[in-house]
Amino acid sequence: MNKIYNINFWFARHNYGANLTAFALQTLLEQMGLDIQLINNPLKESEHAYRHYSFSFDFQKKYLKTTKYIDKNIEFLNSDGNIFITGSDQVFRPIYTQRKPEQYWLDFVKPDKKKIAFSASFGVNKEQFLKENSQDIIEHMKNSFKSFVYLQEKKTVLKFVRMF
After folding, report:
1. Domain ranges for the chain
2. Per-residue confidence at 81, pLDDT binned at 50, 70, 90?
3. Measured between alpha carbons, how far is 21 from 46 in angstroms, rounded to an integer?
């Protein structure tokens, strides 16, 4: 069976919403007979270390199915993954994804795989987003979004893509 992989901010120390959303999505998809795992690829090395003393770690150990810790290259997930989901949270806000924004835009996913945004957001209004990001980043995001097969709250994202 092909796996579904989800990437969000579940690993953050106090991100209860991302943990609970990941758990709810995992539960729903498992009830549909599907196999899903959260990608264990924190934004910073320190997040992997301190997670062991947080709500996220205890909750993850008990309830969440995750990949092994992935330090760098996550492209290998294409070998057994068929569907990739980004979200929940502000995964479309580069200031939050820092050194790995392309991973949250699912740029590592091969063209023959399905890319889905679930409850993903930019987290700010248009003016703030434009202040935070260069035109190159915005163009990169627009191109990345074109390869998604499904964007939850599609009208919002399509409106975003068209406004530039």
Report:
1. 3-162
2. very high
3. 23
CB 80 within 8 A of CB 3: yes
- Which class is domain 3-162? alpha beta
Rg (CA), the chain: 15
Tokens at 23, concatenated: 């758990």
With H, G, I as helix, E, B as strand and everything else as coil, classify residue 1.
coil
Sign of the alpha-carbon dihedral angle for 152, 99, 96, 44: positive
Average pLDDT of 81-97? Answer: 89
Which two tokens mark 73? 């290259």
* Phi, psi dihedral angles at 52 (to 5 degrees): -65, -10
pLDDT digits (tens, 9 = 90+) for 2-39: 799 999 887 766 677 888 888 988 998 898 888 999 99
Q: What 3-state class would DSSP assign to 6?
A: strand
Q: CA 93 to CA 97: how far, in whole Å?
A: 7
Residue type present at position 56 = S
- How many beta carbons lie within 10 A of that of residue 98, not counting itself? 9
The pTM of the whole model exceeds 0.85: no
Pairing of strands 114-117, 35-38: unpaired
Q: Which amino acid is at 117?
A: A
**Number of neighbours of residue 70 by Cβ within 10 angstroms:** 16
Residue 80: closest CA among 159, 13, 141, 5: 5
